[in-house]
Amino acid sequence: MARSEKGHTYEQIYGREKAAQLRELRRRDARKHPNSPIGRHFRVKNIDRVCDRCGRHFLAADPKARRCEECWKCPGCAKRLGNLASTHCRKCTHSVPSERRTAQLAALHAGTRRNNPAQRPDVRRKISDTVKAKHPSRLYPQKWAEHAAKMRRPKPSRLEDAVAPLLPGFFRQFREKFYSIDFARPEIKLAVEVQGCWHHCCPECFPEPRFPMQRLTLKNDKAKRSYLTSRGWQIVYVWEHDIRKDPEEAIRNNVHNIQGV
After folding, report:
1. What is the pTM of this model?
2. In whole angstroms, how large is the CA radius of gyration of the chain?
């Protein structure tokens, strides 16, 4: 595309029609004076050459041309290359590795996997056992549980909101060491736990855990129950299906029948 001395195209300066007229005038001058710079620029490409890269024949004005127009383009972004030695532009060189570099990396990775002792099953098992044995939850179980309780803030559920007006004398989200009790009366050590059927595996609705989340919740519930009962707490579980049927009857049957409440 023809440009002026300041680098602007003819279309930007004169418009499309005027630029076409100027180009036609330059072509006439080129035909009149074929050996001038403008004549060499508009010379007809009639020299048959063979591309060094793809082997195809192409017409060129330069008798020393070694690449066709397609081989001068970058395969990644179709930009024109700067020299004959490059196969990709500077941007695509980093994203498209060469075959030699790919082969070197493959050989390096294969040797690393073959010579790395940590890839052997017995060594990996030993490393895993060592990491588990030195985990803070194994070395300092009580401090780890206290830290986890501080990080895990209790989140009241809609089931608890439905049951809360029916338990006026209970403290909500009562903290006992590093466990949180849904509803508690600490003077008689009575704890009321509102349990979701799916999450806590209700014996009637979901007797067998099927998902990892359910197994983890059962494990945590067992640890919480053993901790509270060892310190004299009495735990009453109110399940989701009972609350959805009739909250008042669920509280009456599970909580109000206990002596002292």
Report:
1. 0.44
2. 41
Same domain, 15 and 64: no
CA distance 47 to 61: 6
Specify whether 169 is located in the same domain as 229: yes
Domain shared by 202 and 174, yes or no: yes
CB 228 within 8 A of CB 197: no
Size of the chain in residues: 261
**Residue range(s) defining the domain that contains residue 62:** 51-102
58-67 residue pLDDT tens: 877 666 778 8
Tokens 């532009």 correspond to 89
Neighbours of 202 (CB within 10 A): 17
CATH of the domain at 240: 3.40.960.10
Q: Are residues 86 and 30 in the same domain?
A: no
